[in-house]
Model the fold of this input.
Amino acid sequence: MPRAVIVLKAQESASKDSILDLCRRNLGRHQIPRIIEIVEKSPKSQTGIDSHR
Done:
């Protein structure tokens, strides 16, 4: 199941609906995420590597 984890730049805002609309316009049907998470910073492992690719 496609999933998107979004980290916004400082002072930026976006809604899940606007992100989903952008995905629908620019991605294939099978690439559109079903789950969209907006987080403050990218999750890191214990060694400091990004957990999400």
Summary: Residues 3-39 form one domain. The chain has a mean pLDDT of 87.
